[in-house]
Amino acid sequence: MALDAATRPLNSLGFAKPEAETRVLVAMSGGVDSSVVAAQLAEEGYDVVGITLQLYDHGAALAKKGACCAGRDIHDARRVAERVGFPHYVLDYENAFREAVIEEFAESYLAGATPVPCIRCNERVKFRDLLETAKDLDADCMATGHYIRRMAGPNGAELHCAADPTRDQSYFLFSTTRHQLDYLRFPLGGLPDKAATRALAAKYGLPVADKPDSQDICFVPEGNYASVIEKLRPGAAEPGEIVHADGRVLGSHEGVIHYTIGQRRGLGIGGLSEPLYVVKLDVETRRVIVGPKEMLATRIVPVREVNWLGDTPLTARPEWHVSVKVRSTRPPREAILRPVSETEAEVELLTPEQGVSPGQACVFYETGGSRVFGGGWIWRGA
After folding, report:
1. Backbone angles phi, psi at 281, to 5 degrees
2. Smallest Cα–Cα separation from 108: which of 378, 359, 381?
3. Cα–Cα distance measured from residue 132 to residue 289, given in angstroms and rounded to the nearest whole number
4. Is 79 in contact with 205 (CB distance < 8 Å)?
5. Which H, E and C letters describe 223-265, residue by residue?
6. How would you label 27-40 residue by residue, b for 16+ Cβ within 10 Å and e otherwise?
7. CA–CA gap between residue 106 and residue 233 (Å, rounded)
8. Which of 185, 84, 92, 55 has its CA nearest to residue 131?
9. Mapping DSSP to helix (H, G, I), strand (E, B) and coil, where does residue 141 land?
10. For the CA atoms of 225, 228, 229, 231, what is the dihedral angle to 10 degrees?
11. For residue 224, what is the DSSP state?
12. Which of 91, 164, 234, 333 shows the smallest number of beta carbons within 10 Å?
């Protein structure tokens, strides 16, 4: 006798129906992570559809190594789909990616901020546009190769850090909304380490089993932000002065876009008795302000465009005791989150952080736990 939906146990993706009747769209970058997700779900019997996004110029991409979504990666994703035996499609998102990610990256950088385009790509392209495409294809859910966990909580799906803290990608996924979280799945989030992922790739005989991880932002070769900005905005690198915080002019520079908050090396102002760091970028006067390390210490961090994933509204309390990350490479630090509105807040760091930069994300975590409560974008404040 066939089981109805009310009595059938849930499958591994959380649906009360057979795997063969559960369609899952897998966002495939061509790397080992998303390839393993697709192969694993196909082996479990799911109706897998692979989608790869072409995000920027195909010809230029073929000559570039170490980035996702390039021409080689599209080829690799297709090879994986052919080997495992599921349909695979390439969608041209070049215009959408430029408008939603690259243009803002350029404007933000020119304004003296330090943007994180990977977050905007997840937010505006992968988890918005591609997710809608998945629904158009009648997929029950969309799966990705991100290292983060989605867990069922008493009030719905919750976002949690990956089991392997060295692979955790929660900083880059803080803007995932509750609505998106209901539809998304992250099969790799519970794996102990990257070695386990590569072991699965070898088990499935995937041609990308030994493929190196991508390191750069996909459209920024060798991490050279300034060269990309100069191509996008010719003439943007206007020269100016390097000025000490006490007002002394120490030298000149070839464009504010070549500097970031907290930078010490490559300032071109040697021969001083104390080490100096970039403490402020004044775009309007084209000045790079430098000073001693203690000037980098920040306690109050204003954030906006807040995405809150708590069980009650952000404004339900005057303050929340959380831990926050102000850069992807730093551990969470205890803080007090004070809502200003549903989308703006002030974060007070209990221990001052150095090099807090506008344009970076401030991500909220459960202190002593794994839950991600969302986050916001750091700005200079009113």
Report:
1. -115, 115
2. 359
3. 45
4. no
5. HCHHHHHHHHCCCCCCCEEEEECCCCEEEEECCHHHCCCCCCC
6. bbbbbbbbbbbbbb
7. 8
8. 185
9. strand
10. 160
11. -
12. 234
pLDDT given for residue 1 in this prediction? 45
Q: 193, 166 in Cβ contact below 8 A?
A: yes
Decide: 341 and 316 in contact? Cβ < 8 Å. no
Confirm if 157 and 141 have CB atoms less than 8 A apart.
no
pLDDT of residue 70 exceeding 70, the answer is: no
Any idea which residues carry the catalytic annotation?
121, 218
Q: Which H/E stretch holds residue 345?
A: strand 345-354
The alpha carbons of the chain give a radius of gyration, in whole angstroms, of 23
C-alpha to C-alpha distance for 171 and 261, rounded to whole angstroms: 19
According to DSSP, the residues that pair with 152 across neighbouring strands are: 157
The total of other beta-carbon atoms located within 10 Å of residue 316's CB is 11
Which amino acid, 103? E
* β-strand pairing of 184-185 with 156-161: unpaired
Q: Which residues pair with 88 in a beta bridge?
A: 50
**Least confident residue range of 41-55, 84-98, 221-235:** 221-235
Q: Which residues pair with 157 in a beta bridge?
A: 152
Helix, strand, or coil (residue 320): strand
Helices (H) and strands (E) in the chain, counts: 10, 17
Across 327-341, b (16+ Cβ under 10 Å) vs e yields: bbeeebbebebebee
75-87 per-residue burial string, b: 16 or more CB within 10 A, e: under 16 = ebbbbbbeebebe
Strands 240-244 and 287-291: parallel
- DSSP designation for 7: T
- The model's confidence at residue 51, banded by pLDDT at 50, 70 and 90, is very high
Q: Which residue has the tokens 């408008």?
A: 99
Residue 207 corresponds to which amino acid? P
By residue count, the chain amounts to: 382
Give pLDDT tens digits for 181-194.
999 999 999 999 99
